[in-house]
Write a structure and sequence with these properties.
It is a single chain. It is built from eight helices and no strands. The protein is mainly α. The protein has one domain. Helix 3 runs antiparallel to helix 4, helix 3 packs across helix 7 and helix 6 crosses helix 7. The chain is globular and about 45 Å long. The termini are far apart.
């Protein structure tokens, strides 16, 4: 009943390390240079959402500690999104609405990507999710899906004992 009063065991340094690595992977130039996603605030948001989904899938492997890490990680990401919007001149009166919309997009995309990765290869489900949500061109969506699968391989190589303390360089 009073579980919400319980202090989280999540290491803030682990959250920061994951956020830094996810952001670094999302900022790699290839998806933007190849036109798989636009180099805009929303294009970068979509890349962060894709990579964060891959990381959060790994967090699940750690049970309740992974769930707590996932929650702290997503809170950190949305704090960063809020800060980014403010830096881009979005006014206080519309921040909450935009963050709510970004949250809906983030979790909708994360759910669809997660399901697609469970279903199979890029030419089947993941490319379709990307085509519906990020890149309408089928060929570019497939290329981005293959790229996301490569990123997923990098995230999957994080040793289980590193998940709760934060990754090294991916």
């Amino acid at each position: 009943m009073f579980a919400w009063f319980k202090k989280s065991n999540v290491d803030p340094e682990a959250v920061r390390k994951w956020r830094d690595e996810v952001t670094k992977l999302a900022r790699e130039p290839e998806p933007y240079l190849r036109g798989w996603t636009p180099d805009t605030i929303y294009g970068r948001f979509h890349m962060v959402a894709l990579v964060a989904t891959l990381a959060m899938r790994r967090f699940r492997e750690q049970g309740s500690d992974g769930k707590a890490l996932s929650k702290a990680f997503s809170e950190k990401l949305f704090s960063d999104f809020d800060h980014s919007l403010r830096e881009h001149g979005v006014g206080d009166s519309s921040i909450a609405r935009r963050i709510r919309k970004m949250g809906e997009e983030f979790y909708g995309l994360a759910s669809a990507v997660d399901e697609a990765l469970e279903q199979g290869g890029p030419d089947k489900h993941l490319a379709q999710v990307i085509q519906r949500n990020i890149q309408p061109d089928a060929e570019k969506a497939l290329e981005l899906a293959n790229y996301v699968l490569d990123l997923n391989d990098r995230v999957e190589r994080v040793a289980p004992e590193q998940i709760l303390v934060g990754p090294g360089e991916l």
